[in-house]
Amino acid sequence: MTEIEIGRAKRARREYSFDDIAIVPSRRTRDPRDVSVSWSIDAFTFEAPVMAAPMDSVVSPATAIAIGKLGGLGVLDLEGVWTRYENAEDVLAEIRDLPADVATARMQQIYAEPIKPELIKERLAEIRAAGVPVAGALSPQRTQDLHQTVVDAGVDVFVIRGTTVSAEHVSKNAEPLNLKKFIYELDVPVIVGGAATYTAALHLMRTGAAGVLVGFGGGAASTTRAALGIHAPMATAVADVAGARRDYLDESGGRYVHVIADGGLSTSGDIVKAIACGADAVMLGTALARADDAPGGGWHWGPEAHHAELPRGNRVQVGSIAPLEQILFGPSTVADGRSNLIGAVRRSMATTGYSDLKEFQRVEVIVAPYHRQG
């Protein structure tokens, strides 16, 4: 890829966000009803290629169950209020009502409450009792301490999610998580991330991960770019990681690792472009936080918003536009890509002539920057 000269001592690669690209129709079209948007990982098949992000404003045990019954996968944040407080609903109500000038400081206090292993077991048991797949997420820092509690409680999919996760974390102060050994010893598929480069993703794939989350610092509630100067334009990141998947498939003799876009996915068009760039599925935060029945009640925040030392996110108001089912499957009452997300993916695939997600990854993509309205 052509490099651009920033100055005499620094060159940089040009990368692209979802807003910079578009897909183009082919010679064939299809009926949207004939299009398959199902997605499988390990022994599990989902009717929609959607994982709900492990964020307290997006996933509660109740919404994890609802998303599971709708054909997606809800991932519970095992470091959130649901595993720190018995009365999590009251805590969420307090967070929603916080004045802007004290929100970050008060959230830091709220999330300083210790995680209670018995609540991890209780929340995951509640989801399992509803008969849907169970998924929970921990940060790399917490995984060593709490993973056995999670495994004993029973999960179908385990997610290790951080701002960035590497296969080689170096520390002089603590024994780092040995991802390869950890994944080998678990008896469930493990999804890890975020990663945003070919090399980082390839190393994660070599640990035995079933899936790699792509992206960091790009969500609506994130200030990682402002705080750390780190950002990953998502179209390029997904395409690079999809390239790592292709090469690892050859290297491993046929082992397929799923690419899951995670960040910068605010509208149905973003989801379409993520799949076009090579994603097998998407992890949604903001898009699902807009649901009437989302636990954030029109507000959205992630773990970065209450980091004890360096917060890198805000509690943002995203509004409530429709019930969760309507946001995913319509009908939509808005024309801006915030609702009927899966219906839009189906229609885009049908318009360009593709019958399933893996076929659609081959769709033609062009560079066509535009600016969103509003």
Give a concise summary.
By secondary structure, this protein is of the alpha/beta class. The chain has 14 helices and 16 strands.
Commentary on this structure:
This protein has 374 residues and is α/β, with parallel strands linked by helices. Helix content is 34%, strand content 16%. The chain contains 14 helices and 16 strands. It has helices spanning 61-69, 88-97, 103-110, 117-129, 140-153, 179-185, 198-206, 224-228, 234-251, 268-276, 286-289, 324-329, 341-352, 357-360, and strands spanning 3-7, 10-13, 21-23, 39-41, 44-46, 50-52, 73-77, 135-138, 157-161, 190-195, 211-214, 258-262, 281-284, 299-300, 316-317, 365-367. Helix 1 links the parallel strand 6 (50-52) and strand 7 (73-77). Helix 1 runs parallel beside helix 4 and helix 7 crosses helix 9 (234-251). It is globular, with a radius of gyration of 20 Å. The model has no long low-confidence stretch (mean pLDDT 91).
Descriptors for this entry?
374 residues, alpha/beta, eight-stranded parallel β-barrel, two-stranded antiparallel sheet, 14 helices
Give the topology, please.
Blueprint: E1 3-7, E2 10-13, E3 21-23, E4 39-41, E5 44-46, E6 50-52, H1 61-69, E7 73-77, H2 88-97, H3 103-110, H4 117-129, E8 135-138, H5 140-153, E9 157-161, H6 179-185, E10 190-195, H7 198-206, E11 211-214, H8 224-228, H9 234-251, E12 258-262, H10 268-276, E13 281-284, H11 286-289, E14 299-300, E15 316-317, H12 324-329, H13 341-352, H14 357-360, E16 365-367
Parallel strand pairs: 6-7, 6-13, 7-8, 8-9, 9-10, 10-11, 11-12, 12-13
Antiparallel strand pairs: 1-2, 3-16, 4-5, 14-15
